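Researcher: Structure for this, please.
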Amino acid sequence: MIKIKRRYLSLLAAAALALPAAGLAQQEAGKLYLNPAVGWIEWDSDTNLDDDVYYQLGAEARLTERFGVELRYGQADSVDIKRGTGEADFTRLGLDMLYYFGRFGANRAWEPYLAAGVSHGEFDVDGSDRSDETLGNIGLGVRYHLSDRWSLRADARAVNSFDSEQTHGIYTLGISYALGGSPAPAPAPEPAPEPVPAAPVDSDGDGVPDERDRCPNTPRGREVDEYGCEYVLKQTETIRMEVLFAFDSSEVREEYMDEIEKVARFLRKYGGTTAQIEGHADSIGTDSYNKKLSQERADAVRTVLVERFNIDPARLTSVGYGEERPIADNNTEEGRRENRRVVAVVAAEVEKPRD
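Model: Predicted structure, token format:
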């Protein structure tokens, strides 16, 4: 029989590893692998035989994803005897247990394993009686999955004879075909996305959806109540601002901005109103001087409302009354302090009938 050199086995292994793996969807548990292989047997140095080609056929049942059991038959035919003439035939029948470490690599195609087992071996030497041996083996291997059914397997074993205490090496490479097995469970479907509720329609952009809006077509920018209707000022309001000025000054200081902002908030809520900013003074000084200074102070507060708080200037007027409209006695310090004031007079609106 023609002998296969080890360098050819290496080339065959390299070509097998270049094949792509695809469609690895079957579960391993329950499969039955048919494992034909060819390889090389290296005899113990004390064995009077030449190394030679080794043939093998196995049937492997995968009990679980990790464990399998294999019945294997192997033989080496017409092995040359080193010292002397003649040939020998070697056969081996055994049972192995395999432990798989799991799938690795691209497409999870690589599946290494550890194997151990026992077997019965027979030597049939020309001109001699047949001899039997009990053998144990242990080794490593790897299965490379080409598809759900087809795979390549490389295997290396140390085989020890319990009778002669000789240890041989057996190296094989084969192609396997799997029978049976169950499909891997399909991945759970992605949960359907939650339906996105339609955004409520707000035609006039006042923040109240049409289904609840009792006052459609509200002018843009107006504050509205919970029913989408404008706030309407039914009586004229006078809002006093506690804004104090330095002597002979109309500059509005930062500490009084909160006082002016409360007027701005009121005007934004009642967006259809107009307001007059009034400046008043006590009786100290000449009437003409007080009137001029109170006008400048009223103008300064109006400017803050326009430039800082974005109130439409068309809604604001300013006037200085000087000492003309006292609200307290100018003969006392407390009274004069009450008279030095800036107020916003916000005029009432005419309420429009609702639809």
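Researcher: Any notable elements?
Model: Residues 1-9, 11-25 have pLDDT under 50 and may be disordered. The two ends are 108 Å apart (CA to CA).
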